[in-house]
Design goal:
alpha/beta; 42% helix; Nucleotidyltransferase, domain 5; 229 residues; 2 domains; 10 helices; disordered C terminus
Length: 229
């Protein structure tokens, strides 16, 4: 069966939706497919008229500003937007342990700048007491929503012990926690290197009990207990 949207078009639509946070990605995608036809491709998006796109957005929500709409349209139609805006993985040996495997929701480069419910990809890092390294990039399948996306995201987090994300809803956070993955929300976008270096410093210092447990380290025995005969 032919796909109803190309990978390149799916990436553009997902990136454009970041400028329209009050509009669900699935709703925007549905209108574009309805207006431009299947399969939805980069060439069809490039031919999208500003008037037609504004009408689509206005039919879904009245909250986006003209600036938001123009930026979203530019992402859909500008030929200079990279088809694949992801970092490259360098082939390196695994870090020595103890270490953590950390997932990051990302839309661009090595950044924590993706919402759990709408990110383009998940970056996987190894982090120990001294350094960190990117070891995997897991692309989020476009077009999924609801329960299907929730299950898909958990699959992408397999093998990880922590999740760094720009935002995550309560039910999704509960799912992640039940999968024995500790979610960490960042209030603003942040470079992955900054967050991973901070985590390395925590590991190298006196990590809290829950991080010691994730690292497989023994519990710290209280000083008073050591003094008891």
């Amino acid at each position: 069966m032919a796909r109803f949207i190309s990978d390149e078009a799916a990436l553009r639509v997902a990136m454009a939706s970041r400028n329209l946070p009050d509009i669900e990605l699935v709703s925007l995608l549905g209108l574009l497919v309805q207006h431009l036809g299947e399969p939805l491709t980069e060439d069809k998006l490039a031919a999208l008229s500003p008037k037609a796109f504004r009408l689509m957005v206005n039919s879904l929500s009245e909250t986006p500003t003209r600036k938001d709409v123009n930026e979203a349209l530019a992402t859909l139609t500008n030929s200079e937007v990279a088809a694949v805006d992801a970092p490259e993985i360098i082939d390196v040996p695994p870090l020595p342990g103890p270490k953590l495997t950390v997932a990051i929701t990302s839309n661009q480069g090595e950044m924590i700048n993706g919402h759990y419910g709408s990110c383009l990809r998940v970056l996987i890092y190894e982090v120990n007491h001294a350094e960190h390294q990117l070891v995997d990039i897991r692309q989020v399948e476009s077009g999924l929503s609801g329960e299907a996306r929730a299950e898909h995201m958990l699959t992408l987090l397999k093998g990880c012990q922590m999740l760094f994300t720009l935002s995550i809803g309560g039910p999704a956070a509960a799912r992640v926690t039940r999968a024995n993955i500790h979610p960490v929300k960042k209030p603003v976008p942040e470079e992955a290197a900054v967050a991973m270096q901070s985590l390395s410093a925590v590991i190298a210092g006196n990590p809290p009990p829950w991080i010691r447990k994730l690292l497989g380290l023994p519990d710290v025995v209280p000083a008073m207990a050591l003094e008891e005969d």
